[in-house]
Each structure stands twice: as structure tokens, then as C-alpha cells.
Design a protein that fits this description.
The chain folds into 2 domains: 84 residues, Arc Repressor Mutant, subunit A, CATH 1.10.10; 63 residues. Helix 1 crosses helix 2 and helix 6 runs antiparallel to helix 7. It is elongated. The protein is mostly helical.
């Protein structure tokens, strides 16, 4: 008999998904524990788990959960909230976490663009290094415009597909 995760789902199947998806996230550059915590939250029906629940499900220490959640919160992939009537925190993944994570990269792109602009001015746009920086700057400006347009198309598609904006 297989163990259930409390909602009628097979715990082994859930665990296999979590580890498989986490491995894909790690391969794409995410920290290992953060990937596992994110995948576990994503796979939970409510999208909310406490540190104790994450520790138990993933067989990791509370310190590992804390570090992973810190990273995920900084990248806007999860949010922290207090459990009603308790001092315990719980961690939530939202349906729009990809949108939030991607659009919050805009601030990073703006900082990179400013630094590159300064570099072009400092090195001179007519030098090989200055031209390389100018091309990199143009790439980031292009990406920023494309991401903004893509996110608008996503909002329309999401509303059409899922009925939520």
C-alpha cells in the first residue's frame, strides 16, 4: 500500500515529481535547496506549506528551508505569511510566480543598462571594448522591451485561458 500525502495523492509520485522538477530547475541555474522547496510548494494543493512541513516532506533541516525560502522570496518566487493565530510562518507560491519573477528582473536589467551605458561612455563607443559594451547594452534594451510586450500578451492569454487577470 502506498502512502498518501493527506489529500489522497500518492506521496511517492509527488516526491518523484518534486525531485524531477527540482533537478530541472538546478540544471537551469537555481540553487538546489531552493529548487526543491519551490517544487514542493508548487506541487502542494494549497500552494502553502510551513517550514516544518517542508522539512518533513523534503527530509531537510529547518535551516536549509530558511535559506531556500530567503532566496526564493528575494527572487519573488514565494512569499512569507504568518499562520493566523500563530507566530509560525508559512510559505506560499502564487499562480503568477513566473510572471512576478520575470517582471521583477526589469529592475536588474535597468541597473545593468545603466552600468553598461557608463562603461560605453568611459571606454569610448569607438573602441572595440566600447562597441562590445554598446552591443550588450542594445541587447538588454531589446530584451526589456520584448519581456514587457510578452508579459502583456501573457495577461491576455491567461485571462482567456483561466478567466483571471
Amino acid at each position: 500500500m502506498t502512502e498518501s500525502v493527506g489529500d489522497g495523492r500518492d506521496a511517492e509520485s509527488v516526491s518523484k515529481f518534486v525531485e524531477s522538477f527540482a533537478a530541472q530547475l538546478v540544471e537551469a541555474g537555481m540553487q538546489r535547496m531552493a529548487a526543491r522547496v519551490f517544487a514542493a510548494l508548487l506541487a502542494s494543493d494549497k500552494g502553502v506549506l510551513t517550514s516544518a512541513e517542508l522539512s518533513e516532506q523534503l527530509q531537510i533541516s529547518p535551516a536549509a528551508v530558511s535559506g531556500a525560502v530567503r532566496y526564493l522570496a528575494q527572487t519573488h518566487m514565494v512569499s512569507r505569511e504568518r499562520e493566523p493565530g500563530s507566530r509560525r510562518e508559512r510559505y506560499r507560491v502564487h499562480g503568477d510566480q513566473w510572471y512576478e519573477a520575470l517582471t521583477n528582473r526589469e529592475a536588474v536589467l535597468k541597473r545593468w543598462e545603466a552600468a553598461l551605458r557608463e562603461g560605453v561612455n568611459s571606454l569610448g563607443g569607438d573602441t572595440p571594448a566600447g562597441r562590445r559594451l554598446a552591443e550588450t547594452l542594445a541587447f538588454f534594451e531589446f530584451v526589456e522591451g520584448e519581456v514587457a510586450a510578452m508579459m502583456e500578451r501573457w495577461r491576455v492569454h491567461r485571462e482567456r485561458t483561466f478567466g483571471q487577470g
